[in-house]
Write a structure and sequence with these properties.
442 residues, alpha+beta, four-stranded mixed sheet, 13 helices, 23 strands, globular
Length: 442
């Protein structure tokens, strides 16, 4: 079935941001190895996160849903993780699979990892490379793609590692491996990436040191063999999901959208910072904190946007938001240029190509770059009228549907099933704002 987003004259309303996906993964992972029983509220119940919970259960933790967004996790504590009875299926979850590889490396276990067609096409060598240096064994082919078998070890050794690309997933995998390694694991970042792993580890009682170097450089140190203790925590709202709602308000002819409870973290704020550089006037109000993260309410309304060159300092902090950035860039006046974002080539799909194809299908001039893309803004509503091939990428699907709410003609997508991986309430939230998104036969 094809889903079509029709132009509407107004988008207005108040939405509570869904739980942050990154924090939800980490809560289940760390709760699953801590001593005692952790309680979480506001956990994102998308397919990606649920598969992480299922994996932790298979490895020896007890993971129980006790209500909407409310989960109880009894960790394995000192006994550690054990080999599962069956392969761990991560579906479409790049974050879950990559973080779990790091975690499992430090235990005496053997596990087979599998995923869906999309995940099985994504390279894992950049995760496997440092883990192999620490002592992990695996059966991955040279291309480093799933399926393959991992064999962890309690004799894992700490390393000092400088990831060749800015990647929170690589950093986090090495740190999670370092939790059960002998010695102090050190990760040297040339550019800062999202720091949820560091923050949440501290919440569970671990010692994590962060030292700032020249420019944006940071060095993260984690002594191994540290015990973790169970916690009670509320999961903050996901800024990556909130970005779709904020963008919808910005491009609407009559937009007034308030998103409540959004995590405000400088390693995740790039999209909102850039939107303001492009001319958006985003109201933000502090509302407290959750799981060590500051929370804000963000309000967006219709804006006359100006294309910008994306500062490379913002790239890592908005790496998941580039598809929806491309949408607001299509409505802007002038050119928007993205560089230094080669990470987009190895997401759920080649997001550089997928973004450019999405825009071109709807009458927007866009060009691929090796490490990003350029968009020639239309100075108002783009033509629309296209069918977007989502390539099993949830962010492409949601971005195209947001585009359709304010384009000149409806915008269709070939599949929406994968949206459930990260934002299962997306369609209902958009409908409550006034969006007209409907299904029709292909």
């Amino acid at each position: 079935m094809v889903w079509t987003s029709h132009p509407v004259s107004r988008l207005k309303g108040v939405i509570r941001a869904p739980g942050d996906k990154s924090c939800s993964h980490r809560a289940l992972i760390l709760g699953g190895i801590a001593a005692g029983t952790s309680h979480f509220t506001g956990l994102l119940e998308g397919d990606d996160v649920l598969r992480t919970g299922t994996a932790m259960q298979a490895l020896g933790a007890t993971v129980t849903r006790i209500g909407p967004g409310q989960w109880e996790v009894t960790g394995t504590g000192p006994r550690g993780l054990s080999s599962p009875a069956a392969p761990l299926d991560f579906g479409n979850s790049g974050t879950g699979s990559r973080l779990m590889m790091g975690l499992m490396a430090g235990y005496d276990l053997t596990v087979d990892l599998v995923g869906d067609e999309s995940l099985s096409a994504r390279p894992m060598n950049r995760i496997l490379a440092p883990l192999r240096l620490m002592g992990l064994a695996d059966t991955a082919e040279p291309h480093g793609r799933l399926p393959f078998r991992l064999t962890g070890t309690n004799a894992l050794k700490a390393i000092t590692y400088a990831p060749p690309q800015a990647s929170a997933q690589v950093k986090s995998a090495v740190m999670l491996a370092g939790l059960n390694a002998h010695g102090t694991t050190i990760v040297e970042e040339a550019r800062p990436t999202r720091d949820h792993t560091e923050r949440m580890l501290r919440g569970f009682g671990a010692e994590v040191a962060v030292k700032r170097g020249d420019g944006q450089a940071r060095t993260i140190s984690l002594p191994g063999r540290q015990p973790l203790s169970a916690i009670e925590a509320a999961i903050p709202g996901d800024p990556s999901s909130a970005a779709f709602l904020i963008a919808a308000g910005l491009i609407s002819p009559d937009g007034n959208v308030l998103v409540e409870g959004v995590m405000s973290n400088p390693t995740r704020s790039g999209f909102f910072d850039l939107a303001e550089l492009m001319g958006a006037r985003l109201g933000a109000e502090d509302t407290g904190d959750a799981a060590g993260e500051r929370l804000i309410d963000i309000q967006s309304g219709s804006a006359a946007l100006i294309g910008r060159n994306v500062p490379e300092r913002l790239v890592a902090s908005m790496i998941d938001e580039f598809p929806i950035l491309a949408v607001i860039a299509a409505f802007a006046t002038g050119e928007t240029r993205v560089t230094g974002a080669e990470e987009l080539r190895v997401k759920e799909t080649d997001r550089v190509k997928a973004v450019v194809d999405m825009l071109r299908a709807n009458g927007v001039e866009a060009e691929e770059r090796e490490d990003g893309f350029t968009v020639q803004g239309c100075g108002g509503p783009p033509p629309g009228g296209g069918l977007v091939e989502t390539r099993h990428d949830h962010r492409i699907a949601m971005s195209a549907l947001v585009l359709g709410t304010a384009a000149q003609q409806p915008v269709s997508v070939d599949d929406i099933s994968m949206i459930a991986t990260s934002y299962p309430d997306f369609l209902s939230h958009m409908a409550s704002l006034g969006a007209d998104i409907s299904e029709r036969p292909a």
